[in-house]
């Protein structure tokens, strides 16, 4: 007999709008937290012990919040809204004060990406005012680092990921574009290292495993496209995963590199083994498009969760494959 479909261990309600983005902060904390950004401009900080919102931050003038994150080892929250602002918030000692902001000029839905280059120092990458440009700045000083613009017309920047290779060279950036292309950029040299056509449609989302130098991207079609970097930093297309229904909003790899989750336009979350892209589960709970998925960063594997945020204004939390499961 096949196992029954899993159910969420609990759900969070009261976000007051469609859920666009989720971010966990559980590692090293007494109180595990989940941050969510809604289509109505609210940032909810959920206490996962009480399963209630312990704080609501309103900072984007009612505009949709499309990305939230925290700066490691600090009480700084960073959020991005459709008001073209990236805001930094001081959450220490119960505060919720906006301490700085960056104007992006971008009207798209491309989420920002941050990278800690040294303790307390961060780079921030974001889609710029011009359709194809990516801007990178030093976060605290707002000093411009570079602007990356492809030679050919690739359309709007859709998704980006800043990362630091182990080789000791400078930061690299992966970007997905409207024409379905992926580009790998050398931030220090301000140059394109390689390019691959991963999809016939716009690249809606991508995620990248920096340890295995392997990534995966999704679009409005029924396929996920996986790819890797060789030793010369060339993007090499690999396997495709064919899904039942088209459209993926977001992809997320668990921190231990064992699981991949996808947020589907068909209201479902799909879980795959990351090593072989083997389908493991289809999670059905939501009544509208799933727009965000995130794995928790709990230190104890038994406590790890998967969260999904939907257009139906609910967040579902799931506990799956945490002990000794074959997740190949």
TrEMBL record:
<keyword id="KW-0853">WD repeat</keyword>
<dbReference type="InterPro" id="IPR015943">
    <property type="entry name" value="WD40/YVTN_repeat-like_dom_sf"/>
</dbReference>
<dbReference type="InterPro" id="IPR036322">
    <property type="entry name" value="WD40_repeat_dom_sf"/>
</dbReference>
<protein>
    <submittedName>
        <fullName>Guanine nucleotide binding protein (G protein), beta polypeptide 1-like</fullName>
    </submittedName>
</protein>
<feature type="repeat" description="WD">
    <location>
        <begin position="283"/>
        <end position="320"/>
    </location>
</feature>
<keyword id="KW-0677">Repeat</keyword>
<dbReference type="Pfam" id="PF00400">
    <property type="entry name" value="WD40"/>
</dbReference>
<dbReference type="InterPro" id="IPR001680">
    <property type="entry name" value="WD40_rpt"/>
</dbReference>
